[in-house]
Amino acid sequence: METPAVSGYKEIIAGLRSGSFQREEAQTFYKMLGEASVNPSNNQPELKNKVAVVSFDGELTKYTAMCNVGADSLISKIMEYNQDPSVKAFIFKMDGPGGNAAVIPMFHDLKGKINKPVIAFVEKACSLHYYVAAICADHIMMANDFTAEVGSIGAMIMFEKPDKELIMIRPPQSHDKNQELKEALEGNTELLEKRLIPLAERFMADVKASRPQVKDEVLHGKVVYAKDAIKMGLADSIGNIEMAYKLAIARAELNNKTK
Hints:
It is built from eight helices and eight strands; from the N terminus they run αββαβαβαββααβαβα. By secondary structure, it is an alpha/beta fold. Strands 1, 2, 3, 4, 5, 6, 7 and 8 form an eight-stranded mixed β-sheet that branches.
């Protein structure tokens, strides 16, 4: 996850403790784009050339909770649209700092099931958000050439030292339990770094496999804006939601011709 996002947890926790989220309505994270038309059989208005827009906003967690839409809900809605023959393609609207690495296998599984084109439309896709865009999307389009950004490829653990002394008691049989945290609190982060290495290496390898044109210099945590993202192979184009829609439909039509 991108580092600054962690500070936002304090506001969320404060809101939960105060009860300010109790009446929050569920977030709407999907909508349908299409062309207005009239059904000749019943003279009723309808959409044709439909493209489902699924929004990945904020921290990406495994499960949906009071303050966020999790991967479980996102994937469930994507699969629902994937089975709807009237939906031609997807736009994954990415605007988030990353999230929980436990989500990754879920999207690898999803990638093998989606049978329609996917355009990633990016306001911000850092860390896990970029991972999902890289492995699932056929094309990554930056939303503007000013503030849209991608990157933060890699793995990280961040925590605060407690204000008071932390006492950890373990029986001899559990001498390895939370040893990484114990040593990190004492100033030695080597075990935590070793634990993160496989995640970072897999992240880099999966991005390279999905986007072989990616430059090595952006595989180690850099975040870049749109024009540099294209130069470095992290993205393919800059556009707006209308352009993303047209590209999604064009790819869907091309897929139909090649079947």
